[in-house]
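Trying the structure run again after the queue cleared.
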Amino acid sequence: MLNEREIIATLEMLRNENLDVRTVTMGISLFDCASHDSERFIANIRAKIMRLAGTLVDTCDEVGLKYGIPVVNKRISVSPIAVAAAGFSSAEMCRIAGALDELARQLRIDFIGGFGALVEKGFTKGDLALIEAIPEALATTDRVCSSVNVASTHAGINMDAVALMGRTIKRAADMTADRDGIGCAKLVVFANIPQDVPFMAGAYLGVGEPDAVINVGVSGPGVVKKAIDRAREANPDLDLGRLSEIIKRTAFKVTRVGELIGRTVSDKLKVPFGVVDLSLAPTPNVGDSVGEIFQSLGLKSIGNPGSTAILAMLNDAVKKGGIFASSHVGGLSGAFIPVSEDLNIAEAAKNGHLTIEKLEAMTSVCSVGLDMVAIPGSTSAETISGIIADEMAIGVMNNKSTAARLIPVPGKKAGDRASFGGLLGEATILNIPDDGGSAGFIRLGGRIPAPVHSFRN
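Done. Tokens:
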């Protein structure tokens, strides 16, 4: 294991390679804030979040300054609101979202996640109220993020929830039409959602988690690319096996950085340390791209034949390096392929190298699924639900976490551009065949049973 001195030296070497601690996320349980009165519930969550996270931003800044690497995002994840606020109406759920947004603003928190539900086997009244509230909640807040888990390997796929989320995504897009449907950029539909994700929009605090916890998300696609480039310049004959080893060793170093930052923040705040999520999460900045790693490994563009194989190798090497570096690796940990958030991937989509079909194939081996995919605003709710159902099937059958963050951009068609700003970036709208052919399937509803390999006890 690297000691503190060696990690600081590593940070110095990687200063110009876009290594960062992408997020420190404090998870906070809201279950003890429960009340039959929504105003009392809001007052309770305000008091608890202020008490636990009041100094989160300042502490992260102090630790980042100490070690010479900034914590880019400071975030909070809370218990699923559909559970913590189960007795409230959709209107009251919207007021809770507004209170969370205002809390995040006061605390200078970038995002607050957990406005979500777990409905893989069915709905409670609280689940239905929350899902009904999602479009308005996301349209009227800036920092609130929502996730809904509609499938799992042990439960199968709740197709009623899939159909409902297709309609919910359309409503969220329509209510933020003046901003290219940005409400949908804060909404993700999951299969097998982990309980400890620090990355948005999927972050929430699971039922089995502590009362409060610090989880860290570290991202270093630029670091991985530079390591591959240096190795190939020094030895052009390196094969994929040896390049995989280089990726693994680089992931080890990056994970140790996250471990150091996370544990230091944890100690200062006197909150337990949870996990390091080593996900290669890109940004729209040049040199901070997962797509560029594919080019360093010999492809002309991500999306070319061979892309799925490279992504499988990359994910495996990242996980192996991260697991060896920390006893507490969690969340998603692998490689993200968000279309709008990665300049290189966005360019591949624009040039036609990356289609929705190829993206779906790649999600069978990536960490997060169809991520930040802009689609025509005219795409029907049933077609959106069909895309979600396909993605959920990949997660359920492969016993892996996967998700869909789809953005039907109102008033725009395939080939147009959508702009979401900041880390969310820009994307070319992908062509989605939509002749109504999925509607009959989606209307059947019910639950697709869990696969046979789920029966383990």
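The domain at 220-256+278-451 is CATH 3.20.70.20 (Anaerobic Ribonucleotide-triphosphate Reductase Large Chain). Worth checking whether this holds up in the mutant runs.
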